[in-house]
Amino acid sequence: MSKTIIQLRDIVKRFYIGTPNELEVLHGISLDVHEGEFISIVGQSGSGKSTLMNIIGALDRPTEGQYMLDDVDVIAAKDAELSRIRNKKIGFVFQTYNLISKTNAIRNVEMPMLYAGVPMRQRNERARELLELVGMSDRMKHLPEELSGGQKQRVAIARAMANEPSIILADEPTGALDSATGRMVMDLFHKLHEEEGKTIVLITHSNELAEETQRIITIRDGAVIGEREGAKS
Amino acid sequence: MTMLYENIRLALFSLRANKMRSLLTMLGIIIGIASVIAIMTVGDSVTATVTDSMSSLGANNVQLMLEPVSDEEEEGDSMSSMMGISFSQGDDEKEPRDSDLITADMLTQLKETYPEEIKAFSVSESVGKGELQLAGQNANVMVSGTSLGFFMANDINMLEGNYFAEQDMENGSMVALLSEDALDDLFDGDAKKAVGSEVTMAVDDKYYNLVISGVYKAPDENDASNANMMMFMMGNDTTNLYVPLKTAQRINHTSGYNNLTVVINPEKDPEIVKAQIEEFFDNIYRNNHSFHVTATTYASLVSIMQTIMDTITSAIALIGGIALVVGGIGVMNIMLVSITERTREIGTRKALGAPNSSIRMQFIIESIVICIIGGIIGILIGCAGGIALARYVGADVVPSLRSILISLGFSMAIGVFFGYYPANKAAKLNPIDALRYE
Q1: Burial (Cβ within 10 Å: 0-12, 13-18, ≥19) of residue A61
Q2: So what's the ipTM on this one?
Q3: Would the pTM count as exceeding 0.80?
Q4: CB contacts < 8 Å between A and B, how many?
């Protein structure tokens, strides 16, 4: 059995703690993701999947529970350590791409390496490789506003790979794309999974996309209600 | 290092992206820095020029002046003696009687008391403003009687003719030395024709006939600026007309001196000699309750002058400083706007692993870059303005490296100070909220 990369135990998240509006969004979620797995987390909006994603992505802390990410105790980490975890262990892909505007593709890809303190020459080399991998080597000097949605998402995926993270965390990566481009982006994830052996966590509300992944975790009302293998994996 | 470079690059990008806004933001800094630099340049230039002219009057001179004893305090002495002539001629001032004046005997006695220290006396007696007339032409002059030592002490050279003869000095003859300007007015610049000619001098509605015994040179280049300064202050083309000391005393009906300069041995410390001379005259004037003699060295004049100029300069610089603070608040305001606009970018950077410290640094550097660019523009404008103003006043322009460095440092400090709050706000943004910000 391969190594466990993500280990969530009894994760509880409450908001507005201590006020009359106190709200429990996650009611004790446990989840394991193994190295090299491609899983999807599906759920309706309001199901708590965004909150779960924020916790997995070390953007937020659970109110209760344990979280080990690649042998690092995320719960115990201080803010500065969380920054490092996000930088080194997690590669984010957002629905809205979130490329830094007025900054060309290659510099966008270099950005996580900049925060990791990678020397300029190495940064540049690696960014070129990654852009090549996602098929964007002819658009390296283009600004985000000069790229189409699919192209932006490919640059964003290259950026997510920059520091060789333990997981790629993709939040509705095809949500803003038409089906043809969405397909292309999904194919890219499959390629990264199969050829690069990446661990990928896909968060989506589309059952169709989820079926392509190895394992589907369904969330409703802040709890895991089902776990099964993807039909087309 | 790469981070710093990256941050500066980013800051320049965001400035370029909002040119108009950046310029308006910088305007406060530009105005503040420009005014500080301009004022400091003018201040330093004027101080340097005045100091220069004062020291050219002689570092080894001690100025003696007959002063009314003030009833209240003695503190203002050096001030009033500096402005001496113009102040003591005020209407309320007590006019010294003949018996109050410094006499030739006193000087002889002083010289005998301190033969080592004192080299010579340079005496001049102001007669006042007068007009020279000749064949329908006229020239404005300030008439002063002088000793021969005066020309040596003040480095005045002859263009044509001679200094006063010994015998003219002793007799108080009606002879005069003319300036080049006055020569132009009266003799169309013909110096040869002027020497030996007789002109009419009107002072206080009285008329005197004078023979021109010589024409003296306009002070040479080094002193030209001083002359210009004097002109600027007097506001017309009045030049000095020198007559023998005794002649002036006859016109003024006095036998003593109001003021004179003691030329001291350069090997002696002027401050010590000054104290000795003061003590000497304090003894003589012990029983005179109306007047006493003050001694001032040029060194002390220069330091007083510098103090005054420094005070004026710093007062005006303070106003520039207020403009800078206002400019700084403008920078802070725009930084807050910029951070709100870029909330998503901040969220993204945090998600990519930027620690709070680098977000903070990014925006502080942006604020510093705005301030420094504003500062540099301000320095350029201020230097241009300061140089133009200093030229207009006729002072030697002193490019003030000190003020440029201070201004640069100050604009950087403003950048840090007013950039810190917005930058810290950005650094503390919650990444989730920032990522979702629309």
Answers
A1: middle
A2: 0.93
A3: no
A4: 67
